[in-house]
Amino acid sequence: MKEMTQLPAGAKSYQKKLTVFAYFSRDGATYHKDWGDQDMKCEHMVIVGPSPGDGFDVYGCDIGRFNDTYEKVAPGTNEYRKKELVKAVQMGEAFSVTTIVDGRVEVHASGGNGDYLVQQPGGELMAVSKVEFENMFVEAGKALPPPLPTSTFTF
Fold first, then answer.
1. For labeling, which of 3, 44, 101, 112 is most exposed (least CB within 10 Å)?
2. Contact (Cβ atoms closer than 8 angstroms) between residue 133 and residue 116
């Protein structure tokens, strides 16, 4: 499996089309994901968003990074959309990647043939499955769908 340390040639710009709900947490947490374990050792934002299929995806985001990269969809709600573009390329072989945020390892992850290697605006690399990527992103400049109704996110 090839370890990726940078985005290969041919990457395009994409914008997030889905919205998420975000909540502040004072506690550290480890999120066990299909793509690897995410270790949030300090205060962070808990992100709750749609997942491929009928479930929800829950993960963490550093507070500073969250404030830099998300914008509120509507006043008075906890609904947000990522505002910055990512660069991504669909990979033609299995790969692995280590996501480093502020000098610390946050995630070790892998992807398969057809999955996407995504570079966040801060330079962090992530592996995203083909299904999840195509559900979450649209090529930059294309129309965004309206936010999902809040009632979709009942617990």
1. 3
2. yes
Q: Is the residue at 147 inside a domain?
A: no
Output the pLDDT for position 83. Answer: 86
What 8-state DSSP symbol labels residue 141? T
CB burial string 51-78: b at 16+ within 10 A, e below: eeeeeebebbbbeebbeebbeebeeeeb
Number of domains in the chain: 1
Kindly state whether residue 124 falls inside one of the protein's structural domains: yes
The per-residue pLDDT for range 117-132, each reduced to its tens digit, is 999 888 889 999 999 8
Q: What is the pLDDT of residues 79-90, one digit of tens each?
A: 998 888 999 999
d(CA 118, CA 11): 9
Which residue has 């502020």 as its token pair?
A: 102
Segment 35-46 shows an average pLDDT of: 87
Site of tokens 């999840």: 132
| Integer Cα distance of 147 and 149 in angstroms | 6
Residue 152 lies in a domain: no
**Residue 63 is part of which domain span?**
2-142
